[in-house]
Specification:
- By secondary structure, this protein is of the alpha/beta class.
- The protein has 4 domains: 144 residues, 3-Layer(aba) Sandwich (Rossmann fold), CATH 3.40.50; 136 residues, Putative Large Serine Recombinase, Chain B, Domain 2 (Hect, E3 ligase catalytic domain fold), CATH 3.90.1750.20; 158 residues, no CATH class; 59 residues.
- The protein is built from 18 helices and 19 strands.
- Helix 13 runs antiparallel to helix 14.
Length: 558
């Protein structure tokens, strides 16, 4: 195809006229040469025994071949991921689409195993349809004589990768059975060379700004568990650590989520863990204990000398209960002057989206709508009117309750839990452990229903179920042994006295009194603007049920 040129003085080479520049696909508009793409790949983790050519070295070889063949490089597609299993490779897909569509004349790849390790299924679509050149094997997909060799080499690469993957899995499985830590040590711990066991990292790494005292990562870990167990919130603790100049293992600022990840991790008690399966929901990102396939027992990953120095199980469980809200510490006092609204919290929800409603000005409004407009029909209610209706309904419900009404049983249980006149800290901790054990068993059933224990994770299903059930059984047995018999006097809330008691109480007690009998207040949106509030039409109250009834419902659902 001829190209119009313009003359230049002094014998200079004529250049293409841009006004008549070619638009032919696969031809470089600047040089008039055919175009080629480069596909470069290297695995994120170079497996043992594999000496893969670096991305830069592959690119140098590709550009040299392109120049030698008279092509012009259009795009360099670089990948740093595996070519095996079901890994998505958008750059490879784009490179293949380009060469199949004729946007480039040839796609250069260093070797067949850099192209794919899925065997013949990966190379059949290009044979005879597009030119893909494999430099190491000197094979060309557009050449008839190379077809059989490409198929053969592709299958060889697939077989090698499958064998390597099998060997790696076998080696890792054996190391896990021996309690070896396979990855990078978590913050606060160090790996012992050779044995791959963990020990506390006591190397000083930072100075506290307050007194310039050197601390070690393990000191910070112990401080985190103790502070959370004593009732300090993760957000407040992260602010304190940051203000003292302490940083994470990567040098980043502490965040509440970082502290959460440390507190929930079983490794700080000395247990070997397994990461969640790839592709699972975010709720499954919490690691679980490794289960030995032969014995069914959990495996320790720390040395015998370091085991007594690990975080005690009692302290770790207490910190997790406090952080999850199952155990309320007595030292959590309200800030002076802070107003406590009786309907504050997740008790009041929007009927349309189920989100909690918070106080905005003088009205309770849907949190999701206020945050990002995510609620299509957000509920809103004038605070005095809503509170007046709820208190009246609460008082009337208690006044009309019979002696054997389940609501009164629930109120008595909750009032005893608040006041605990004869109970000490041991009973309070036992109650919190029961709540945490129930939550763990609930999470197991949620994970099981979501398919978390499918495939390779199937062997962890029964140990996780048995561990959660055993924990709940032990917690309930301990609680029943600590809590004695007797009755709880709540007559001061009955026979029409509830309203007077509520109005004479302080804001904190008002909130507690409502929560004795109410689990949830569901508010529906108004039918129009400036409509007078009608609680009977817009409010649904979910009344409390006794713990025993909740347990029976849970057993039936399970």
């Amino acid at each position: 195809m001829s190209t119009a040129t313009t003359a230049h003085p002094a014998g200079r080479r004529s250049l293409p006229n841009k006004s008549m520049e070619t638009t032919q696909p696969g031809i470089c508009p600047c040089h008039g040469r055919p175009q080629a793409d480069l596909l470069l790949r290297k695995s994120k983790i170079v497996r043992e025994g594999e000496r893969a050519l670096s991305i830069r070295a592959q690119e140098d070889r590709g550009r040299a071949w392109v120049a030698e063949q008279g092509y012009c490089v259009r795009t360099v597609w670089k990948e740093n991921l595996s070519a095996w299993s079901d890994v998505k490779r958008p750059k490879m897909d784009a490179a293949l689409d380009a060469v199949l569509a004729g946007e480039v004349s040839v796609l250069w790849c260093y070797a067949l195993d850099r192209f794919s390790r899925k065997g013949a299924e990966a190379v059949v679509p290009i044979l005879g349809r597009a030119r893909v050149y494999f430099d190491y094997e000197r094979l060309d997909s557009s050449e008839e004589r190379d077809r059989r060799w490409i198929l053969d080499r592709a299958e060889n690469a697939r077989e090698y990768s499958a064998r390597l993957s099998h060997n790696v899995r076998g080696t890792k499985a054996q190391q896990q059975r021996e309690g070896k830590w396979l990855g990078k040590a978590p913050f606060g711990l160090a790996v012992v060379p050779g044995t791959r066991r963990l020990i506390p990292d006591t190397t000083p790494y930072m100075c506290v700004l307050a007194d310039r005292q050197e601390v070690s990562p393990w000191d910070v870990v112990k401080r985190i568990f103790k502070a959370i167990a004593d009732g300090t919130s993760a957000r407040a603790l992260s602010g304190t650590l940051n203000s003292e100049g302490l940083r994470t293992g990567t040098g980043a600022y502490w965040r509440a989520s970082t502290i959460w990840a440390i507190v929930v991790h079983p490794v700080y008690e000395g247990w070997l863990t397994v990461a969640p399966a790839v592709g699972k929901q975010k709720s499954h990102k919490r690691p679980s204990r490794y289960v030995h396939p032969d014995t069914g027992e959990n495996v320790r990953c720390v040395t015998d000398e370091a085991l007594p120095r690990m975080i005690p199980a009692e302290l770790a469980e207490r910190a997790r209960r406090v952080m999850a809200g199952h155990q309320i510490m007595d030292n959590k006092k309200r800030a002076p002057g802070r107003q406590v609204h009786p309907l504050h919290g997740k008790k009041t929800t929007c009927s349309n989206c189920g989100s909690a409603m918070s106080l905005q000005g003088r009205s309770y409004t849907c949190n999701r709508h206020d945050a990002n407009g995510g609620c299509s029909a957000p509920a809103s209610a004038f605070r005095p009117a809503l509170l007046r209706y709820v208190v009246d309904a609460w008082s009337a419900r208690l006044h009309s309750a019979e002696d054997d009404d389940p609501l009164l049983i629930a109120v008595a249980e909750r009032w005893q839990a608040i006041t605990r006149p004869e109970e000490g800290a041991e009973v309070a901790e036992a109650r919190a452990e029961v709540a945490a054990a129930k939550a763990e068993l609930d999470k197991f059933h949620q994970d099981d229903a979501a398919g978390f224990y499918a495939g390779r994770s199937a062997r962890y299903r029964m140990p996780a179920k048995q561990r959660a059930e055993a924990r709940l059984d032990a917690a309930e047995e301990r609680l029943s042994g600590l809590v004695g018999g007797g009755t709880v006097d709540i007559t001061w809330l009955l026979e029409g006295h509830a309203a007077d008691t509520w109005h004479q109480a302080d804001p904190q007690l008002q909130r507690d009194l409502l929560h004795l009998a109410i689990d949830q207040v569901i508010v529906t949106p108004a039918h129009g603007k400036r409509v007078r509030f009608n609680g009977a039409e817009r409010v649904t109250i979910v009344w409390a049920t006794p713990e025993q009834a909740e347990d029976d419902d849970y057993a039936q659902a399970a």
